[in-house]
Inverse folding.
């Protein structure tokens, strides 16, 4: 794979926090192929992973691919929609842009498009040259629902000519906009089966309840694709190449150590690499990685203290014990002794609450503190018991 060599003085060659695009994206060949091939074949998909594993990055990459081959894509980040009317107008605006040749088109074309909606939006030209649809500020629920259905109909019409895809990222938040929305979508997906739904979300229990469980409203509609970590080989190669392109080389063994300290979430690996790059005078060696780790933890202390202070004592003890040593045997006597939580049911309750808050994560049957930098900060059980 060819990668850009950064010019001298250019920014840090690593990136974290927002979706990985361009040269910041690595691996995921099989997952990308799995998503793209389904988008092209009218099979809906749902991507589920813990936070920061790269769902949005993968969906954006897939979007790029299918758009290049002529597909229409409406891409919504549900978390960016503050209410149901905002969701409806974002969908309508994006449906307008999903139409071929709409960018830079006339006011008349935009006004004609508005007439497709009974709630009578108007179109405004933004400074970026893109039209945006605006509805009355207090669109009633019934009107918002009808607008969503009208967008679906538009997508279905396009599906006659080209793959037509509706991406709803951060889908776990959809019921915050309306408890009825999963059922509305199910009805629309049944009515217009040629429109591909691509959903992504974390909070696996919510996604489970809406999409995966046998009694879920969207059960059976979408092929579930579980997103694991980026494979180690791609990640090592990425770290080595990016470090070299940024003028501070890193050997493979250091890249491997960095992954074992921050992994497996690609976001955390890139975050530590970012700090290690800053901390390295020249080459990124193991010392620079250690300094980077200290720096990353020190940036997080206020946030960590706040999380810690809002957790009841039982949850803190369980966090302390898992930070000390991840385990799958949380109902064992040994774990109760190690954590200092007296009963199995209290351990269980703490595990459930921490899982719901996405502070811990289960990987291959073993519970881990999800964020490696928080894990490094959490006081050890000795301190807690003392
Ligand atoms: N394929 C990839 N290659 C390299 N880094 C990646 C890749 N995918 C994700 N990352 C890293 O993870 C970060 C977060 O990615 P992204 O926002 O796509 O994750 P997400 O699963 O959508 O997160 P969230 O759960 O917060 O929505 C990126 O900034 C990047 O550092
Ligand atoms: Mg995301």
């Amino acid at each position: 794979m060819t990668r850009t060599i950064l010019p001298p003085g250019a920014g840090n060659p690593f990136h974290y926090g927002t979706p990985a695009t361009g040269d910041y994206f690595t691996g995921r060949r099989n997952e990308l192929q799995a998503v793209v091939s389904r988008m092209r074949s009218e099979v809906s998909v749902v991507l589920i992973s813990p936070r920061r594993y790269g769902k949005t990055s993968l969906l954006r990459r897939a979007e790029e691919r299918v758009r290049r081959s002529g597909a229409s894509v409406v891409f919504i980040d549900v978390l960016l929609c503050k209410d149901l009317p905002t969701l409806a107008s974002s969908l309508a605006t994006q449906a307008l842009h999903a139409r071929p040749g709409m960018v830079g088109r006339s006011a008349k074309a935009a006004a004609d498009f508005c007439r497709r909606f009974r709630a009578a939006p108007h179109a405004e030209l933004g400074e970026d040259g893109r039209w945006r649809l605006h509805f009355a500020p207090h669109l009633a629920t019934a009107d918002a629902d009808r607008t969503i259905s009208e967008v679906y109909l538009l997508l279905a019409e396009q599906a006659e000519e080209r793959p037509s895809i509706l991406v709803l990222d951060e889908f776990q938040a959809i019921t915050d906009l309306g408890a009825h929305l999963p059922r509305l979508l199910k009805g629309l997906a049944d009515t217009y089966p040629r429109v591909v739904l691509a959903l992504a979300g974390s909070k696996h229990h919510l996604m489970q309840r809406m999409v995966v469980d046998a009694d879920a409203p969207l059960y059976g509609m979408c092929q579930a694709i579980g997103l694991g970590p980026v494979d180690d080989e791609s990640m090592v190669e990425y770290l080595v190449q990016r470090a070299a392109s940024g003028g501070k080389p890193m050997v493979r063994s250091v890249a491997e150590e960095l992954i074992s300290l921050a992994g497996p979430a690609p976001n955390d690996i890139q975050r530590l690499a970012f700090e290690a790059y800053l901390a390295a005078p020249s080459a990124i060696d193991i010392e620079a990685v250690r300094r980077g780790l200290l720096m990353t933890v020190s940036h997080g202390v206020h946030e960590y203290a706040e999380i810690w202070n809002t957790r009841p004592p039982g949850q803190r003890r369980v966090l302390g014990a898992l930070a000390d040593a991840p385990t799958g045997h949380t109902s064992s006597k040994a774990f109760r002794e190690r954590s200092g939580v007296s009963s199995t049911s209290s351990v269980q309750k703490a595990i459930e609450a921490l899982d719901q808050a996405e502070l811990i994560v289960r990987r291959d049957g073993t519970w881990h503190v999800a964020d490696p930098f928080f894990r490094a900060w959490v006081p050890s059980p000795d301190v807690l018991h003392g």
User: Anything to note?
Assistant: The chain has three domains: 28-103+139-226, 232-300, 311-385.
